[in-house]
Design brief:
This protein is α+β, with helices and mostly antiparallel strands and 152 residues long. It has one domain. It is built from 3 helices and 7 strands; from the N terminus they run αββαββββαβ. A 5-stranded antiparallel beta sheet has the order 2-3-4-5-6, with helices on one face. Strand 5 and strand 6 form a beta hairpin.
């Protein structure tokens, strides 16, 4: 069952289902695709993607941050990551003193990655606190599989 995820809670509104579909928490959802079989990432891949994304989000925020992964999936050579942004203390990130201090940003982080030749993962696109469905742009911009959140 495909469902819309509340933008304020997750930072993305799916356009693949009817607007009246029930909301779900991120823990109940994962990336999926009609065209490509998508499974949860192997632990080694998930760890590599998370490490690179954590470095990128900390650099973008100009402050140390942690990512609490809510969904990590792989489709061929493409990786998809959704996480909650936490501060170094493990609590929700406080955007005060960051470039997002005055923004209407969620506490979510989304990333599109591609497997590199050295078995690592290169970050293709990512967003801190997105409020739009950025994953809808990925196939046209980067040639990634068309993906959406699948909630069970």
């Amino acid at each position: 069952m495909t469902c819309a995820i509340r933008a304020a809670a997750v930072g993305v509104l799916l356009l693949t289902g009817p607007p009246a579909v029930a909301h779900a928490q991120p823990e109940q959802c994962h990336w999926t695709s009609d065209a490509v079989a998508v499974s949860n990432a192997a632990q080694a891949d998930a760890d590599l993607m998370l490490a690179g994304a954590t470095t990128a989000v900390s650099a973008e925020l100009h402050t140390p941050a942690r990512l609490d992964p809510q969904g990590v999936s792989v489709a061929g050579d493409w990786g998809f990551l959704q996480a909650r942004i936490l501060g170094p203390d493990g609590n929700w990130i406080d955007y005060a003193g960051t470039p997002y201090a005055d923004a209407m940003a969620s506490k979510s982080y989304y990333a599109l990655l591609k497997r590199s030749h050295d078995d690592g993962w290169a970050l293709f696109d990512s967003r801190v606190g997105p409020t739009d469905a950025l994953d809808q742009q990925w196939p046209q911009r980067f040639g990634s599989p068309a993906v959406f959140w699948h909630c069970s």
